[in-house]
Amino acid sequence: MTQRTGYPDGAPCWADLNTPDLDGARRFYSGVLGWTFDEPVAEFGHYTTARLQGRSVVGVAPKMPDQQHLPSAWSVYLKTSDIEATVRKLADAGGNVIVPPMEIPGQGHMAFGFDSTGAAFGLWQPASHTGAQAFDEPGAMCWHEVNTREGEKADAFYRRLFPYEQQQIGDCKTFDYMVYHLAGTAVGGRMQMTAEWEGIPPHWMTYFRVEDTDPAAERVRQFGGKVMHGPFDSPHGRIAVVSDPYGAVFSIIGPAPTPAS
């Protein structure tokens, strides 16, 4: 069991969920991913930290009264060492800042906005809270990608923010995917949305690793969620796109099935 203590600038370092039912969300994610939860902190809007064997993995918060009309969703945060400078780059690159840099006392500074294609994401400048302490193991987030209909525009936008090395995979006609690297390490990706995504706005997708995708998908159903796509095999493992009981969408990924001998 290892504990991660930091992330490079530009890497997804944290994710959190807004939900209309905090108790219900805790039951669902405990059942599906095995999380335990800290007591909600009233002065931070009853925000609670989910943990895996004592290590932080994500945050969960109930919707505020003025947010009840908004859909429940997962949000990803990209790490930055200078949030003011990154927010300026975000605006200069054609994004839209909706929450300017603000301090979370003792924890760090956050900001939130939209990229130039309309996908929402956050920024995080750490103080004592350096990001998820468990990463890329069963029960923890392991990958993030931005899904958009304007792939080239998104790639240019994120290059303005951070020094990503962007590697195209796929044939660009039937599968257009860009992997974002930092210092040679893959940290995220960009998926070109096609006609099959009609009606779905641009968004960041969070993936959680599981030990076995099919039983995890069954647990999603058992605890009131929905399996929206899959499970299906990919070069990187077996994936299912799912939602919790309140409509927040995320993906789960486990090892590919062992071929029959």
Q: What does this entry show, briefly?
A:
The chain is built from four helices and 16 strands.
**In total, how many domains does the architecture comprise?**
2
Span of the ends, CA to CA = 32 Å
* The CATH top-level class label of the largest domain: Alpha Beta
| CATH topology title of the largest domain | 2,3-Dihydroxybiphenyl 1,2-Dioxygenase, domain 1
Count, helices: 4
- In the predicted model, the low-confidence regions spanning at least 5 consecutive residues are none
Q: Report the count of strand segments.
A: 16
The description of the largest β-sheet is: 8 strands, mixed
Shape: globular
Share of residues in strands: 35-45%
Radius of gyration: 18 Å
- Can you identify the CATH superfamily of the largest domain? 2,3-Dihydroxybiphenyl 1,2-Dioxygenase, domain 1
H/E series, N to C? EHEEEEHEEEEHEEEEHEEE
Q: Could you explain the architecture of this structure?
A:
InterPro entries: Anthracycline_SecMetBiosynth (IPR052164), Glyas_Bleomycin-R_OHBP_Dase (IPR029068), Glyas_Fos-R_dOase_dom (IPR004360), VOC_core (IPR037523). This is VOC family protein. Residues 11-126, 140-255 form the VOC domain. It comes from Nannocystis pusilla. It holds the Pfam family Glyoxalase. This protein is α+β, with helices and mostly antiparallel strands and 261 residues long. The protein folds into two domains: 12-126, 2,3-Dihydroxybiphenyl 1,2-Dioxygenase, domain 1; 141-254, 2,3-Dihydroxybiphenyl 1,2-Dioxygenase, domain 1 (Roll), CATH 3.10.180.10. The protein has four helices and 16 strands. The strands form two sheets. Strands 2-3-4-1-5-8-7-6 form an eight-stranded mixed β-sheet, covered by helices on one side. Strands 10-11-12-9-13-16-15-14 form an eight-stranded mixed β-sheet, with helices on one face. A hairpin with a 5-residue loop joins strand 7 and strand 8 (120-126). Helix 1 packs antiparallel against helix 4. The chain is globular and about 45 Å long. The model has no long low-confidence stretch (mean pLDDT 94).
